Amino acid sequence: MKSIKIKAFAKVNLGLRILEKRDDGYHNIESILQTISLFDELNISLAAESIVVTANNPELPLDETNLCYKAADILLKRTGQKRGVIINIKKNIPIGAGLGGGSSDAASVLTGLNLLLSLSLNKEELRKIAVSIGSDVPFFIDGGTAFVSGRGEKIEPINKKIRFNYLIVFPGFSIDTKWAYEKINFLTKRENYITIFNCYFNDSNSGNLELLLKNDFEEVMLGEYVELKKVRRFLIQNGAVSVSLSGSGSSIFGIFDDIMKMDNALSFFAGKGYWAKEAFSIRSSEIPQFALE
Description:
Layout: E1 3-21, E2 27-47, E3 51-55, H1 67-78, E4 84-90, H2 101-116, H3 123-130, H4 137-142, E5 145-150, E6 154-157, E7 165-170, H5 177-183, H6 216-224, H7 226-237, E8 242-245, E9 252-256, H8 259-271, E10 275-280, E11 290-292
Parallel strand pairs: 3-4
Antiparallel strand pairs: 1-2, 1-11, 2-4, 2-5, 5-6, 7-9, 7-10, 8-9
């Protein structure tokens, strides 16, 4: 076994509350994360020495600032492995879109190398390594649906069978997450609108998500970017039952309970020149998806 191909799934935030700033400079958050069927494709191979990252997107850094590079470097050092890794990334998830592409890629590197090197690390051990790479990375070790808190490292799986249909719209520009958090430093009041144990999830009840899909970044980001307000309005006008910014943006997603309406909405956005993709929920039991060579 010398290489592995693995899918790194994107996520959406089904609600996001930004709480107080922590002593370590991060913010406490509460959110429900959901992996979706949009994915990057990683090909990970073992080598004699050094870590090499390649990608099909010229905007992606390929040095030690790349999260995949960090993931490989940390895992090799913590497990005492004296060898190299070659990582090729085929980016399908837009960069800086709030869909967790970089974090998911990093988690997939940890999972892939754990298999390639026969390390036999369990999920908890992988999550402990993941938290040192980035706040969202631990979630992607399992994926599925989960309530996350702290700075994102506290994960409580939600085991209900959720199968929503999403239309993801990327407006063509990215939003820097650090800048986004700086814009909402005044948000320190806790509100209890994200309480997963009181939320009723099933495929026939997506309308109840209107009570849940509140993202603290929206008020600021929709004020900063007129284009985001336009996309949100278009999704509602085209039949989405719930609409929200994912993470700090810039992507916005709509949940549809009518596939025909979603198909028509996709055509509408494509006709206006937007990047738009249909997706559906991916459960933790469907992760990882890989092929060994």
